[in-house]
């Protein structure tokens, strides 16, 4: 009766897992990674798929080959492509339960499965057709069949051994990190398998290797490609802390619930004796892939990110619950309900997962463009996106493309010149952008269209409508952009500014009567220095610097520099030449405006006492005038990395 009651609890967990992953199934959009995979499916032969669609990607062939044949049968719609991965995600929950039950007891299995069922980590990757949730399933299958070989090798050794070999091969063909996990699990299993079965177990390992031999030439080719540092930075020392936060939905409610249940059994003295060998084994199955990935990324090439640890993260969860006794079904139902309520609440309300993940920024930049075009007249429109994805949705949404393609601008000077030439003919400007747009684009647009009438923030991007009318007290600009400080050389106020007053001149100015002359004897001009926390404590903010400059003889490679320093050491540096803006600004003024913008969300800021500094570096010893050196704080998009980071 107890067994049957627990089975009903498992069924409830699995049903909720299906619901969470299938919610509004027809509305789940493709991600950038999925488009990348789909673009590598249009081949006429298997050999072309391998040579042109697999080798260049850096992932093993397994998932790409599966999608190649799956799409030929079921098509390329979001629903057809994503469905098998949702199935993989639900099966992963089931195998989590089986492993917990085998190594500990049913209570541990049910609770761990309940957590896995409602995490954004597993829900999201169940809805993405990439080799992550499949790798989690194959990794759990591998551990499950190894468990049967360790605990009861006398029973169906051949069948379990074959399933173990198949699971190991699937891990190897799925992802290089699931291959790494399989190797670690396989080696550690040799210390737990009964001695009389050790030779047979060794043969199983040979079997996995034999099945992987056809893939070796692909593996070595991809190994020569290195990591993914073109988009992925090396991990920082606090990577693991952020990863644990990510696992638990960045939710104090969820982590407190899990810790409360875990510690509660200690306090009421109902915990069972911990099998430290099993705890050490499970801990090693997570820590070894993490440490290998971390140090390889730090010392060789970046490969470590949240998604590659999905294959082993469940074994952390088992450590939270492994000491719990096998409880009665009513207690199990209560504990599972508490955990799942906390997980679902954090997923839906705290993370707002179904709002942000389902709002594809690739779609929204086009939909908002269409809406603005229908409601406004005389709007200059610019869209920044990924071209092949944008083209897909233009056809899907039947949207015209009467807009300017941002990617055609080779520099911010070209963008600025384009706006300067068109500003007289258009009252408003629409911008649809992704998260990786140059942060200077917004302040450049604001030079010509100073009022923000609309700003919509999405996961992965944002859309704006700017207008030429002056910003007033009710405008979004006044709410979202604030002047922190300005050096115009008209008064004695010098707080946070450092400059030599003897070079103030009345030769020419932008505002007031004074400007500042930098001559060939001056290497470093006026500077602004302040503790970062005095300006912003919000990681989604932008800090925009602007400077008016006019050649006296030549800028000669002079640069507006912005740095971040901690304890006297530079932790971030950026700068742009003053002469970049000459061509565009010459249309309306002899003064040119140089912008430098810090996107705080893209900068690692976990340092003590960060000092923000901006200065003019007269690198080539030119001679020029400067005026109106401004520092603005601009509110950014708090959900731009909404499914991967905390808000």
Helix residue percentage: 40-55%
Query: Number of DSSP helices?
Result: 25
Q: Work out the number of β strands.
A: 16
Residues in β-strands, percent: 15-25%
Secondary-structure class: alpha+beta
Record keyword descriptors for this entry.
single chain; 647 residues; alpha+beta; Jelly Rolls; 3 domains; six-stranded antiparallel β-sheet
Draw up the topology in text.
Layout: H1 2-22, H2 32-38, H3 46-54, H4 62-74, H5 78-103, H6 106-118, H7 120-126, H8 133-151, H9 157-174, H10 176-189, H11 198-212, H12 216-225, H13 239-247, H14 252-267, H15 276-299, H16 314-321, H17 329-350, H18 353-356, H19 361-375, E1 379-383, H20 387-397, E2 404-405, H21 412-422, E3 428-434, H22 441-448, E4 451-458, E5 461-467, H23 476-480, E6 481-487, E7 497-498, E8 504-505, E9 515-518, E10 524-531, H24 532-535, E11 542-554, E12 559-566, E13 569-577, H25 582-585, E14 592-599, E15 610-617, E16 623-634
Parallel strand pairs: 1-2, 1-3
Antiparallel strand pairs: 3-5, 4-5, 6-16, 7-10, 8-9, 9-16, 10-15, 11-14, 11-16, 12-13, 12-15
Helix pairs in contact: 1-5, 1-6, 1-17, 5-6, 5-7, 5-8, 6-16, 6-17, 8-9, 8-10, 9-10, 9-11, 10-15, 14-17, 15-16, 19-20, 21-22
């Amino acid at each position: 009766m107890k067994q049957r009651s627990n089975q009903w609890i498992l069924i409830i967990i699995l049903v909720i897992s299906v619901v969470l992953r299938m919610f509004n199934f027809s509305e789940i959009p493709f991600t950038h990674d999925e488009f990348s995979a789909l673009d590598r499916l249009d081949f006429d032969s298997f050999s072309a798929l391998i040579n042109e669609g697999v080798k260049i990607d850096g992932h093993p062939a397994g998932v790409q080959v599966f999608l190649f044949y799956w799409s030929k049968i079921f098509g390329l719609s979001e629903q057809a492509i994503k469905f098998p991965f949702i199935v993989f995600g639900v099966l992963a929950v089931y195998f989590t339960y089986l492993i917990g039950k085998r190594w500990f007891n049913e209570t541990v299995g049910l609770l761990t499965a309940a957590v896995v069922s409602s995490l954004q980590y597993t829900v999201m990757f169940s809805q993405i057709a990439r080799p992550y949730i499949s790798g989690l399933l194959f990794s759990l299958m591998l551990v499950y069949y190894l468990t049967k070989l360790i605990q009861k090798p006398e029973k169906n050794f051949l069948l379990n051994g074959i399933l173990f070999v198949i699971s190991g091969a699937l891990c190897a063909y799925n992802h290089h990190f699931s291959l790494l996990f399989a190797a670690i699990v396989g080696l550690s299993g040799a210390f737990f398998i009964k001695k009389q079965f050790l030779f047979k177990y060794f043969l199983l390992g040979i079997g996995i290797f034999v099945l992987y031999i056809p893939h070796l030439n692909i593996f070595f080719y991809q190994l020569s490609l290195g990591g993914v540092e073109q988009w992925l930075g090396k991990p920082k020392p606090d990577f693991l802390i952020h990863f644990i936060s990510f696992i638990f939905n960045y939710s104090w409610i969820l982590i407190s619930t899990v810790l409360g249940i875990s510690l509660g059994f200690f306090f009421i003295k109902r915990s069972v004796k911990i099998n430290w060998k099993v705890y050490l084994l499970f801990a090693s199955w997570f820590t070894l892939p993490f440490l290998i990935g971390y140090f390889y990324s730090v010392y060789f090439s970046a490969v470590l990110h949240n998604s590659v640890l999905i294959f082993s993260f469940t074994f952390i969860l088992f450590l939270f619950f492994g000491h719990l006794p096998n409880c009665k079904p009513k207690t199990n139902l209560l504990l599972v309900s508490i955990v799942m309520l906390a997980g679902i609440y954090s997923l839906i309300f705290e993370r707002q997962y179904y709002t942000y993940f389902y709002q594809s920024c690739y779609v929204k930049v086009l939909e908002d463009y269409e809406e603005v075009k229908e409601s406004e007249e005389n709007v200059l429109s610019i869209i920044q996106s990924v071209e092949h994805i944008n083209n897909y949705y233009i056809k899907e949404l039947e949207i015209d493309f009467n807009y300017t393609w941002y990617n055609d601008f080779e520099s911010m000077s070209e963008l600025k010149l384009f706006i300067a030439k068109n500003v007289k003919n258009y009252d408003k400007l629409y911008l649809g952008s992704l998260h990786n747009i140059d942060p200077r684009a917004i302040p450049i647009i604001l030079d010509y269209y100073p009022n923000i009438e609309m700003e919509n923030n999405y996961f992965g991007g944002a859309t704006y409508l700017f207008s030429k009318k002056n910003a007033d007290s009710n405008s979004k600009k006044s709410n979202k952009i604030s002047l922190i400080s300005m050096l115009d050389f008209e008064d004695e106020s010098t707080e946070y500014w450092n400059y030599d007053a003897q070079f103030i001149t009345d030769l020419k100015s932008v505002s007031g009567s004074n400007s500042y002359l930098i001559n060939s004897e001056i290497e470093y001009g006026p500077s602004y220095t302040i503790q970062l926390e005095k300006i912003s404590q919000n990681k989604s903010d932008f800090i925009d610097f602007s400077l008016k400059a006019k050649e006296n003889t030549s800028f000669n490679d002079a640069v507006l520099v912005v740095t971040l320093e901690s304890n006297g050491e530079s932790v971030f540096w950026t700068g742009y030449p003053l002469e970049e803006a000459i061509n565009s600004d010459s249309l309306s003024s002899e003064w040119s405006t140089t912008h430098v913008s810090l996107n705080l969300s893209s900068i690692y800021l976990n340092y003590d006492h960060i000092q923000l500094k901006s200065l003019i570096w007269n690198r080539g010893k030119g001679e020029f005038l400067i005026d109106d050196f401004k520092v603005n704080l601009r509110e950014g998009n708090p959900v731009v990395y909404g499914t991967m980071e905390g808000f």
